[in-house]
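As the next step, I selected for study a record pairing a protein sequence with its backbone structure tokens, which the following lines show:
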Amino acid sequence: MGSLFRSEEMTLCQLFLQSEAAYACVSELGELGLVQFRDLNPDVNAFQRKFVNEVRRCDEMERKLRYLEKEIKKDGIPMLDTGESPEAPQPREMIDLEATFEKLENELREVNQNAEALKRNFLELTELKHILRKTQVFFDEMADNQNEDEQAQLLGEEGVRASQPGQNLKLGFVAGVILREKLPAFERMLWRACRGNVFLRQAMIESPLEDPTNGDQVYKSVFIIFFQGDQLKSRVKKICEGFRATLYPCPEAPADRREMAMGVMTRIEDLNTVLGQTQDHRHRVLVAAAKNLKNWFVKVRKIKAIYHTLNLFNLDVTQKCLIAECWVPLLDIETIQLALRRGTERSGSSVPPILNRMQTFENPPTYNRTNKFTKAFQALIDAYGVANYREMNPAPYTIITFPFLFAIMFGDLGHGAIMALFGLWMIRKEKGLAAQKTDNEIWNIFFGGRYIIFLMGVFSMYTGMIYNDIFSKSLNIFGSHWHLSYNKSTVMDNKELQLNPGTSDYEGTPYPFGMDPIWQIAGANKIIFHNAYKMKISIIFGVIHMTFGVIMSWHNHTYFRNRLSLVYEFIPQLLFLLLLFSYMVLLMFIKWNRYAATNPMPYSESCAPSILITFIDMVLFNKPKDPPEGCKVYMFSGQGFFQSLFVLLAICCIPVMLLGKPIKIMQARKLANVQPITGATSDAEVGGVSNGSASHGGGGDQHDEEEISEIFIHQGIHTIEYVLGSVSHTASYLRLWALSLAHAQLADVLWTMVLSTGLKQEGWLGGIMLTIVFAFWAILTIGILVLMEGLSAFLHTLRLHWVEFQSKFYMGQGYAFQPFAFDAIIENGSASSGEAD
């Protein structure tokens, strides 16, 4: 459990592997996922490493698998995914896999080429069939016009010269097909280029034709062009070629056309049969490949990852041993050694691997063990910055504080229930939803944070019960403790009427849980009462949150034995925060406890001082104004003296934070007679004894090679940031009050302006109206109040944790532990060759 509050203890190890056993041992370590290897060949080019040829072979196998996957998806064939992860194949199995993939690729390419050729032939025959049909219609129309005068008149309209009476007219023609969208431009070009001396007839092909190149459906038209002379024939063919029109032979004699049409139909029927057989064969090949494709991908990626990792190793002079350096968790060394033994046994090697711990002054990586519940909260922390090695981890505390601060802003029993149910649904269905891998980034974010969403919803339900707010209405469970002493007409006619808690209107005891429901229907002072309450609890929780953050820094300083930071940073920071802002919180509780409407003077409600004015007078050493008659200046005896003392002590903390630590470091350097220190002495060692963790620079501030002037500047920046930040951060927590008020008012507006209009309707028409209005209200509630307001509250809560809380103790300047793990590699879909190289 200790690793939940701090990162795991890490150690740098040196690993010696026999060349024959290296592959199997690295494979076992990849299944384990607890070892981060270092690159021992940083200056060696990626193409000059020992196992570069094996990596290229894996790349080639992946290319072939991607080609198969594309073809399988094109046919819509489901790929079998059992969810199991097969073991990495042995090196000798690579040859079998390569042969299998080569055979499948060649067979599939050959089938595709044959199918494309058949489809192209089928397209040509189909176009020729349409040409023969359409041109027959054209020729029949021409045959019907036997009258010579009519023929001369028709040719004259088209600009073609007519023959002399009694002289036979010999016209040439070409027939073909063209894309329908190109036809208008084609017709214009023919008219202009041939100067109107051609006669064009065209007819659309009703059914679309399949393009054999890309499989798209295209629409085409049949055309026939009549002309006279070889010159026009050559010009027409060039224009057809330019517009990519396909020309086909068309006999002049009707008998020849009929004979050709019969032959074309016979060939089309034969082609349909062959195409069907080809597609069936292709489908069978793809179905067989789809059953194993996922497993093949996993195997190839594992092989590739192993060889990438082996490229990070060094060879000894005998070329028989591979040497590696790796970071491993200290608690898992025995598990890693067992995995290495298993790998050695699998390889049949007789030489056991050797794993030695190494001493180093490098900063180890940060490794926080997580499960499916804590993973999302840890991701929120790591998004700000990965913790320094062995630094206090805010994630376990964030599990409670994050949804709670969110709920203060989002408090509504109804809206919280919607959010909690959505999170609970994702949790209950997480196995099935996780198996449905999708590239939808928004859904992946929602699903990854399902436990956060559930807790935010549950906490919002709790704060909604405290506010007694459900969809801007109240629950009167225990009965209101206020009673009306006015008649109904007086209450309805006087909107500004108020109940006096000092009379019998109030029972004298508070509502058992949360706010009294009568405040929800109060018109004149509802917002005033809610503002005062929510503003104060925002400051109270903010000061508690920041104080807890400062206390967390004490854990860091004591763990790293950093006495300088403990004495000259932690203590004055804590005193400064407690003497000013915690005292302000104390005044709030004193005011709540001492002053009431039923109390006699001088503790009556009218005598209650303003906490804000009191705090301002305290800091500025102002004399309080004279109170009303019968009231006291201060809340308790000696308040003025204590306030002045607290401010003076807080001011004295500032020079201690500013100068204490740099002066002590400067004195230590003078004693060591070194300017600057170039050894391993740090302020952690100046303040006390340095342990192994501090030697890694985890949470301790090291100034080994830093000039004393820079230390003074940095300390001044940190002091100013803390002092001014204490004021601004306290004010920043007022966002809890502001967003809570905005959320409640938006819910009230939606109820008043939308849903209440439907509830006022009567009769069957009112039922229809209510259904429509309720649907509109529900859409607005989920879209605006749950999603948009929820996102806004989430971002504000994230800022409060990153800036106001974590800035008190969290450095976040470490680097994450990235172990060699097959699960992560397969999940990412590749072996991350860039990182390995």
Summary: The radius of gyration is 42 Å.
